[in-house]
């Protein structure tokens, strides 16, 4: 199982990540589609080739073709939106917030899966990418759809752990290459 390979690849100083990775994926209360869509979208957002390579096959095996595509779509559209909306929010000139975005985001309105699942995946990717405005927006949509805070927190816990695992493993690979 790829999850076990990722856990065993983590160095001893990252034992907490090993335990958390097993917990957030192996012991999650999320239904399989929500869990594996979140895992796939966050693996993509982590920008870690190793994490994506290891987690994608299991995600694909646990998702319908539509959900697999939708999770990748959430990662793609949020990669754009997180930069755009985070930048607009960070600029001190509030006039940018009144301008039309002019960016296509059709997949958000018709993701090919339940809207709640797509919103949860978008929230998790926004956590990885650090966009507060997108986090607020997706959290509000989820709360209006009666998704409880525990479920929302589960998504961003997955995001946090996958991001940390990717950062750690990629750093270790660079250090190993440098050591020769």
From TrEMBL:
Gene3D superfamilies: AhpD-like (1.20.1290.10). The active site is at 131 (proton donor), 134 (cysteine sulfenic acid (-soh) intermediate). It is an enzyme of class 1 (oxidoreductase). It catalyses: N(6)-[(R)-dihydrolipoyl]-L-lysyl-[lipoyl-carrier protein] + a hydroperoxide = N(6)-[(R)-lipoyl]-L-lysyl-[lipoyl-carrier protein] + an alcohol + H2O. The keyword ATP-binding does not apply. The gene is ahpD. It comes from the Bacteria. Keywords: Antioxidant, Disulfide bond, Oxidoreductase, Peroxidase, Redox-active center. This is Alkyl hydroperoxide reductase AhpD.
């Amino acid at each position: 199982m790829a999850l076990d390979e990722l856990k065993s690849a983590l160095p001893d100083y990252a034992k907490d990540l090993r335990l958390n990775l097993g917990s957030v994926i192996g012991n999650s209360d999320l239904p399989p589609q929500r869990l594996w869509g979140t895992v796939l979208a966050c693996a993509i957002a982590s920008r870690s080739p190793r994490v994506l390579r290891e987690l994608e096959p299991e995600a694909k095996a646990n998702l319908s073709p539509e959900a697999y595509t939708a999770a990748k779509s959430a990662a793609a559209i949020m990669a754009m939106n997180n930069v755009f909306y985070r930048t607009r929010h960070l600029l001190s000139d509030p006039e940018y917030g009144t301008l039309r975005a002019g960016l296509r985001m059709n997949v958000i309105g018709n993701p090919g899966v339940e809207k709640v699942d797509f919103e949860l995946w978008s929230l998790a990717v926004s956590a990885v990418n650090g966009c507060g405005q997108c986090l607020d927006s997706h959290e509000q949509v989820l709360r209006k759809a009666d998704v409880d805070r525990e479920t929302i927190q589960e998504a961003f816990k997955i995001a946090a752990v996958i991001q940390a695992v990717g950062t750690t493993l990629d750093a270790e690979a660079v250090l190993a290459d440098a050591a020769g």
